[in-house]
Amino acid sequence: MNIFNRAMTILLFVTLMIVLPIVMILPDAVIALLQQSLSAAASGMNNFHRVILILLGVICFIICGLVLYLEVRRPPRRRVKLQKISGGEVELAVDSIAQRLEYRVDQLADVVKVLPKIKAGRRSVDVELNLETTPDVDVPTKTEEVCQVVRDVVEERMGLKLNKIKVNITYAPYPEVS
Asked: Which residue among 39, 92, 133, 169 is buried most deeply as judged by most CB within 10 Å?
């Protein structure tokens, strides 16, 4: 999508570079030409043509708005700067953080499955963990244990600043009794 955005921006600016000077230098001739062509078009236009022009105008507006949005929005950060580094600058990939958290939290007792989601800020991270645990787990104790492991991994072992932890727990199904 980035190539499409750049192509549209270049096309728009080249068009404006040609059209705006002509409009500024010869405003009377441009206005007369527009009046002439619009009156000729309006006299031979029926309702079908007007509906088509309205639809084309709406489609152009939507496309321009979409291109503008895609050009202005910031892509999500894929790297985080480390806190405790002297004499240099080190960035760590968000995927590496997620992989390490998944490995460490999955080793805890009563944890069946872990799906970490990491949201990177400028110098800190937000961690959301979706946990699947055994059905008989003590939720407050397990949540505290998981949060402690996350703090240890992110802050102590990886040297990052932890902003927020969110833990979503679901239970694995009970084993069927036969």
From this structure: 133
Classified as helix, coil or strand, 1 is: coil
| Tens-digit pLDDT profile for residues 132-158 | 998 888 889 999 999 999 999 988 888
Measure the CA–CA gap between 135 and 138, rounded to whole angstroms. 9
- Among 2-6, 29-33, 127-131, which stretch is predicted with the lowest mean pLDDT? 2-6
H or E element at residue 26: none
- What the block records as the tokens of 58 is 């709406």
Nearest partner of 81 among 23, 142, 126, 125, judged by Cα: 125
Q: What 3-state DSSP class applies to 117?
A: strand
Matching CATH number, 79-171, of 3.30.365.10, 3.30.70.1350, 3.40.50.300, 3.40.630.30: 3.30.70.1350
* Strand spans (E) along the chain: 79-81, 91-93, 111-120, 124-133, 161-171
| Parallel/antiparallel/unpaired status of strands 161-171 and 124-133 | parallel
Tally: H helices and E strands in the chain: 5, 5
Domain map (residue ranges) of the chain: 2-72, 79-171
